[in-house]
Amino acid sequence: xxxIVVAVEFTQKCQxxxxxxxxxxxxxxxxxxxxNHCLTCAECSKSLDGAFYxxxxxxxxxxxxxxxxxxxxxxxxxxIDNEGILVSGQDFHASCFTCTHCSNVIKPGDTIVYKNGAxxxxxxxxxxxxxxxxxxxxxxxxxxxxxxxxxxxxCAECGCALGTNKFVEFNGKPxxxxxxxxxxxxxxxxxxxxxxxxxPIGQNEAxxxxxxxxxxxxxxxxxxxxxxxxxxxxxxxxxxxxRDYQSNHGVxxxxxxxxxxxxxxxxxxxxxxxxxxxxxQTCQSPFSEGDKxxxxxxxxxxxxxxxx
Length: 308
Prior knowledge:
Blueprint: E1 3-7, E2 12-13, E3 20-21, E4 24-28, E5 33-34, E6 53-55, E7 58-60, H1 62-69, E8 84-87, E9 90-93, E10 112-115, E11 118-121, H2 122-125, E12 140-143, E13 146-149, E14 167-170, E15 173-176, H3 180-191, E16 206-209, E17 212-215, E18 233-235, E19 238-240, H4 242-249, E20 264-266, E21 272-274, E22 294-296, E23 299-301
Protein backbone atom coordinates (compact mmCIF):
# COMPACT_ATOMS: atom_id res chain seq x y z
CA UNK A 1 0.00 0.00 0.00
CA UNK A 2 1.13 3.56 -0.63
CA UNK A 3 0.61 6.86 1.12
CA ILE A 4 0.98 10.47 0.06
CA VAL A 5 1.67 13.65 2.01
CA VAL A 6 -1.24 16.01 1.75
CA ALA A 7 -2.00 19.47 3.13
CA VAL A 8 -5.05 19.15 5.32
CA GLU A 9 -7.52 21.79 4.19
CA PHE A 10 -10.12 20.92 6.80
CA THR A 11 -9.95 19.13 10.08
CA GLN A 12 -9.76 15.30 9.88
CA LYS A 13 -9.23 12.73 12.59
CA CYS A 14 -6.15 10.52 12.74
CA GLN A 15 -7.19 6.87 12.42
CA UNK A 16 -4.79 5.86 15.20
CA UNK A 17 -4.92 8.53 17.93
CA UNK A 18 -8.31 9.96 16.90
CA UNK A 19 -7.13 13.54 17.33
CA UNK A 20 -7.25 16.26 14.73
CA UNK A 21 -4.66 16.22 11.98
CA UNK A 22 -3.42 19.79 11.55
CA UNK A 23 -1.11 20.77 8.74
CA UNK A 24 0.48 17.96 6.76
CA UNK A 25 -0.80 14.43 7.20
CA UNK A 26 -0.42 11.03 5.57
CA UNK A 27 -3.35 9.94 3.47
CA UNK A 28 -3.55 6.28 2.44
CA UNK A 29 -4.94 4.87 -0.79
CA UNK A 30 -8.03 3.79 1.10
CA UNK A 31 -8.64 7.40 2.15
CA UNK A 32 -7.65 7.02 5.80
CA UNK A 33 -5.65 9.84 7.41
CA UNK A 34 -2.76 9.58 9.90
CA UNK A 35 -0.31 11.86 11.67
CA ASN A 36 3.19 11.31 10.34
CA HIS A 37 4.27 9.73 13.62
CA CYS A 38 1.10 7.62 13.99
CA LEU A 39 1.50 5.45 10.89
CA THR A 40 3.67 2.70 12.36
CA CYS A 41 4.19 -1.04 11.98
CA ALA A 42 1.86 -3.07 14.18
CA GLU A 43 4.76 -5.40 15.04
CA CYS A 44 7.95 -3.34 15.40
CA SER A 45 6.31 0.10 15.87
CA LYS A 46 8.69 1.71 13.37
CA SER A 47 7.40 4.49 11.17
CA LEU A 48 6.16 3.29 7.81
CA ASP A 49 8.04 5.70 5.61
CA GLY A 50 8.14 3.43 2.57
CA ALA A 51 6.13 0.51 1.16
CA PHE A 52 4.02 -1.36 3.69
CA TYR A 53 1.20 -3.90 3.90
CA UNK A 54 -2.36 -3.61 5.14
CA UNK A 55 -3.99 -6.68 6.70
CA UNK A 56 -7.34 -6.57 8.49
CA UNK A 57 -6.91 -2.87 9.31
CA UNK A 58 -3.38 -3.22 10.71
CA UNK A 59 -0.25 -2.03 8.92
CA UNK A 60 3.10 -3.81 8.68
CA UNK A 61 6.55 -3.09 7.35
CA UNK A 62 7.63 -5.57 4.64
CA UNK A 63 9.96 -7.53 6.92
CA UNK A 64 7.36 -8.13 9.62
CA UNK A 65 4.58 -8.85 7.15
CA UNK A 66 6.63 -11.55 5.43
CA UNK A 67 7.65 -13.05 8.76
CA UNK A 68 4.08 -13.08 10.07
CA UNK A 69 1.91 -13.71 7.02
CA UNK A 70 4.15 -14.22 4.03
CA UNK A 71 3.47 -16.98 1.49
CA UNK A 72 5.95 -18.04 -1.12
CA UNK A 73 5.20 -19.39 -4.55
CA UNK A 74 5.94 -23.11 -4.81
CA UNK A 75 7.28 -22.59 -8.34
CA UNK A 76 9.32 -19.36 -8.38
CA UNK A 77 9.97 -19.30 -4.60
CA UNK A 78 9.21 -15.56 -4.45
CA UNK A 79 6.84 -13.84 -2.05
CA ILE A 80 3.22 -13.73 -3.12
CA ASP A 81 2.30 -10.12 -2.40
CA ASN A 82 -0.88 -9.84 -4.43
CA GLU A 83 -3.12 -12.43 -6.05
CA GLY A 84 -2.23 -16.05 -5.36
CA ILE A 85 -3.91 -19.43 -5.69
CA LEU A 86 -3.84 -22.51 -3.48
CA VAL A 87 -3.58 -25.88 -5.24
CA SER A 88 -3.23 -29.20 -3.40
CA GLY A 89 -1.93 -27.42 -0.31
CA GLN A 90 0.65 -25.32 -2.19
CA ASP A 91 0.61 -21.58 -2.93
CA PHE A 92 1.35 -20.17 -6.38
CA HIS A 93 1.31 -16.83 -8.11
CA ALA A 94 -1.66 -17.01 -10.47
CA SER A 95 0.75 -16.66 -13.40
CA CYS A 96 3.09 -19.39 -12.09
CA PHE A 97 0.66 -22.30 -12.00
CA THR A 98 1.16 -23.68 -15.50
CA CYS A 99 0.87 -26.94 -17.43
CA THR A 100 4.08 -28.95 -17.06
CA HIS A 101 4.06 -29.82 -20.77
CA CYS A 102 2.79 -26.80 -22.73
CA SER A 103 3.46 -24.11 -20.06
CA ASN A 104 0.03 -22.53 -20.53
CA VAL A 105 -1.42 -20.97 -17.39
CA ILE A 106 -4.00 -23.17 -15.69
CA LYS A 107 -6.66 -20.79 -14.46
CA PRO A 108 -8.94 -21.26 -11.45
CA GLY A 109 -11.83 -23.48 -12.53
CA ASP A 110 -9.86 -25.20 -15.32
CA THR A 111 -9.57 -28.99 -15.28
CA ILE A 112 -6.24 -30.19 -13.88
CA VAL A 113 -4.83 -33.62 -14.77
CA TYR A 114 -2.00 -34.95 -12.61
CA LYS A 115 0.49 -37.39 -14.14
CA ASN A 116 3.45 -38.60 -12.08
CA GLY A 117 2.63 -35.80 -9.62
CA ALA A 118 2.92 -33.04 -12.26
CA UNK A 119 -0.05 -30.83 -13.28
CA UNK A 120 -1.22 -30.85 -16.89
CA UNK A 121 -3.93 -28.83 -18.60
CA UNK A 122 -6.97 -30.75 -19.79
CA UNK A 123 -5.69 -30.90 -23.39
CA UNK A 124 -2.25 -32.28 -22.55
CA UNK A 125 -3.74 -34.61 -19.97
CA UNK A 126 -5.90 -36.23 -22.65
CA UNK A 127 -2.81 -36.92 -24.79
CA UNK A 128 -0.92 -38.99 -22.22
CA UNK A 129 0.33 -42.54 -22.72
CA UNK A 130 -1.64 -44.99 -20.59
CA UNK A 131 1.55 -46.86 -19.76
CA UNK A 132 4.18 -44.22 -18.86
CA UNK A 133 1.81 -41.25 -18.24
CA UNK A 134 3.97 -38.96 -20.39
CA UNK A 135 2.44 -36.71 -23.04
CA UNK A 136 2.47 -38.29 -26.50
CA UNK A 137 4.10 -36.00 -29.07
CA UNK A 138 4.68 -38.46 -31.95
CA UNK A 139 3.18 -41.69 -33.31
CA UNK A 140 0.97 -43.63 -30.96
CA UNK A 141 -1.25 -46.70 -30.79
CA UNK A 142 -4.83 -46.93 -29.59
CA UNK A 143 -6.02 -50.01 -27.70
CA UNK A 144 -8.83 -50.55 -25.20
CA UNK A 145 -9.90 -46.93 -25.98
CA UNK A 146 -6.57 -45.74 -24.56
CA UNK A 147 -3.45 -44.25 -26.13
CA UNK A 148 0.08 -45.66 -25.92
CA UNK A 149 3.52 -44.72 -27.19
CA UNK A 150 4.41 -47.34 -29.80
CA UNK A 151 7.36 -48.37 -27.60
CA UNK A 152 5.19 -48.56 -24.47
CA UNK A 153 2.56 -50.97 -25.78
CA UNK A 154 4.00 -54.27 -24.56
CA CYS A 155 2.95 -57.78 -23.57
CA ALA A 156 2.04 -57.87 -19.89
CA GLU A 157 3.59 -61.35 -19.58
CA CYS A 158 6.96 -61.28 -21.40
CA GLY A 159 7.35 -57.54 -22.00
CA CYS A 160 7.91 -57.76 -25.75
CA ALA A 161 6.87 -54.77 -27.90
CA LEU A 162 3.53 -55.54 -29.53
CA GLY A 163 3.39 -52.79 -32.15
CA THR A 164 0.72 -53.81 -34.65
CA ASN A 165 1.14 -57.55 -33.95
CA LYS A 166 -1.73 -59.77 -32.88
CA PHE A 167 -2.51 -59.64 -29.18
CA VAL A 168 -5.25 -60.65 -26.77
CA GLU A 169 -6.69 -58.59 -23.92
CA PHE A 170 -7.23 -60.10 -20.47
CA ASN A 171 -8.25 -58.05 -17.43
CA GLY A 172 -7.42 -54.85 -19.30
CA LYS A 173 -3.86 -55.96 -20.18
CA PRO A 174 -2.38 -56.94 -23.58
CA UNK A 175 -0.62 -60.26 -24.21
CA UNK A 176 1.42 -61.34 -27.24
CA UNK A 177 0.45 -64.25 -29.50
CA UNK A 178 3.05 -66.55 -27.92
CA UNK A 179 1.52 -66.03 -24.48
CA UNK A 180 -2.10 -66.39 -25.61
CA UNK A 181 -2.32 -70.13 -24.65
CA UNK A 182 -1.09 -69.30 -21.16
CA UNK A 183 -3.62 -66.49 -20.85
CA UNK A 184 -6.41 -68.69 -22.18
CA UNK A 185 -5.57 -71.32 -19.57
CA UNK A 186 -5.61 -68.66 -16.86
CA UNK A 187 -8.93 -67.42 -18.21
CA UNK A 188 -10.30 -70.97 -18.14
CA UNK A 189 -9.13 -71.46 -14.58
CA UNK A 190 -10.62 -68.13 -13.56
CA UNK A 191 -13.96 -69.21 -15.03
CA UNK A 192 -14.00 -72.33 -12.81
CA UNK A 193 -15.42 -71.38 -9.44
CA UNK A 194 -15.32 -73.50 -6.31
CA UNK A 195 -18.75 -75.00 -5.56
CA UNK A 196 -18.11 -74.31 -1.87
CA UNK A 197 -16.62 -70.79 -1.54
CA UNK A 198 -17.60 -69.58 -5.07
CA UNK A 199 -14.13 -68.12 -5.64
CA PRO A 200 -12.02 -68.86 -8.77
CA ILE A 201 -9.94 -72.04 -8.75
CA GLY A 202 -6.36 -71.72 -10.01
CA GLN A 203 -4.26 -74.27 -11.81
CA ASN A 204 -3.45 -77.57 -10.05
CA GLU A 205 -5.66 -76.86 -7.05
CA ALA A 206 -9.02 -78.24 -8.20
CA UNK A 207 -10.83 -81.39 -7.10
CA UNK A 208 -13.72 -82.62 -9.21
CA UNK A 209 -16.43 -84.52 -7.38
CA UNK A 210 -20.15 -84.99 -7.93
CA UNK A 211 -19.83 -83.10 -11.26
CA UNK A 212 -18.57 -80.02 -9.42
CA UNK A 213 -15.18 -78.37 -8.82
CA UNK A 214 -13.71 -77.58 -5.41
CA UNK A 215 -10.53 -76.09 -3.98
CA UNK A 216 -8.67 -78.98 -2.34
CA UNK A 217 -8.93 -77.11 0.96
CA UNK A 218 -12.70 -76.58 0.52
CA UNK A 219 -13.73 -80.19 -0.18
CA UNK A 220 -14.49 -81.40 3.35
CA UNK A 221 -16.62 -83.80 5.33
CA UNK A 222 -19.92 -82.13 6.21
CA UNK A 223 -19.76 -83.57 9.74
CA UNK A 224 -16.19 -83.29 11.08
CA UNK A 225 -14.93 -80.80 8.42
CA UNK A 226 -11.78 -82.80 7.68
CA UNK A 227 -10.36 -82.49 4.14
CA UNK A 228 -11.52 -85.29 1.85
CA UNK A 229 -8.26 -85.98 0.05
CA UNK A 230 -8.98 -89.65 -0.69
CA UNK A 231 -12.13 -91.75 -0.80
CA UNK A 232 -15.37 -90.28 0.48
CA UNK A 233 -19.06 -91.08 0.73
CA UNK A 234 -21.99 -89.06 -0.57
CA UNK A 235 -25.56 -89.28 0.70
CA UNK A 236 -28.44 -86.90 0.02
CA UNK A 237 -26.11 -84.21 -1.32
CA UNK A 238 -23.71 -84.32 1.64
CA UNK A 239 -20.11 -85.52 1.70
CA UNK A 240 -18.72 -87.76 4.43
CA UNK A 241 -15.40 -89.20 5.45
CA UNK A 242 -15.56 -92.97 6.02
CA ARG A 243 -15.77 -92.70 9.81
CA ASP A 244 -18.67 -90.24 9.84
CA TYR A 245 -20.53 -92.01 7.07
CA GLN A 246 -20.37 -95.31 8.91
CA SER A 247 -21.33 -93.61 12.16
CA ASN A 248 -24.40 -91.93 10.65
CA HIS A 249 -25.45 -94.20 7.80
CA GLY A 250 -23.25 -97.29 7.95
CA VAL A 251 -24.40 -100.92 8.02
CA UNK A 252 -23.42 -103.24 10.87
CA UNK A 253 -22.81 -106.93 10.46
CA UNK A 254 -25.54 -108.98 12.17
CA UNK A 255 -22.94 -111.60 13.10
CA UNK A 256 -19.95 -109.65 14.49
CA UNK A 257 -21.71 -106.28 15.01
CA UNK A 258 -18.83 -104.44 13.31
CA UNK A 259 -19.25 -101.82 10.59
CA UNK A 260 -19.36 -103.19 7.06
CA UNK A 261 -17.09 -101.56 4.47
CA UNK A 262 -17.38 -102.57 0.85
CA UNK A 263 -19.37 -105.58 -0.40
CA UNK A 264 -21.79 -107.23 1.99
CA UNK A 265 -24.66 -109.71 1.89
CA UNK A 266 -28.19 -108.78 2.87
CA UNK A 267 -30.89 -111.34 3.57
CA UNK A 268 -34.60 -111.01 2.95
CA UNK A 269 -35.15 -110.04 6.57
CA UNK A 270 -32.81 -107.02 5.97
CA UNK A 271 -30.02 -108.49 8.08
CA UNK A 272 -26.59 -107.62 6.67
CA UNK A 273 -23.34 -109.57 6.94
CA UNK A 274 -19.70 -109.32 6.01
CA UNK A 275 -19.11 -111.83 3.23
CA UNK A 276 -16.85 -113.76 5.59
CA UNK A 277 -19.31 -113.69 8.48
CA UNK A 278 -22.33 -115.38 6.92
CA UNK A 279 -21.95 -119.19 6.88
CA UNK A 280 -24.07 -122.23 6.47
CA GLN A 281 -25.41 -123.24 9.85
CA THR A 282 -24.63 -126.89 9.10
CA CYS A 283 -21.24 -127.01 7.34
CA GLN A 284 -19.98 -123.50 8.27
CA SER A 285 -18.96 -122.88 4.66
CA PRO A 286 -18.86 -119.14 3.78
CA PHE A 287 -21.11 -117.74 1.11
CA SER A 288 -19.78 -115.81 -1.86
CA GLU A 289 -21.46 -113.16 -3.95
CA GLY A 290 -24.02 -114.89 -6.21
CA ASP A 291 -24.43 -117.98 -4.03
CA LYS A 292 -27.95 -119.02 -3.11
CA UNK A 293 -28.76 -118.72 0.57
CA UNK A 294 -31.65 -120.65 2.04
CA UNK A 295 -33.29 -119.44 5.23
CA UNK A 296 -34.85 -121.80 7.67
CA UNK A 297 -36.12 -120.35 10.92
CA UNK A 298 -34.21 -117.15 9.98
CA UNK A 299 -30.89 -119.00 9.77
CA UNK A 300 -28.77 -119.36 6.58
CA UNK A 301 -28.05 -122.70 4.91
CA UNK A 302 -26.22 -123.64 1.75
CA UNK A 303 -27.96 -125.44 -1.08
CA UNK A 304 -26.58 -128.81 0.04
CA UNK A 305 -28.01 -128.43 3.53
CA UNK A 306 -31.18 -126.52 2.78
CA UNK A 307 -33.29 -129.44 3.96
CA UNK A 308 -33.24 -130.63 7.50
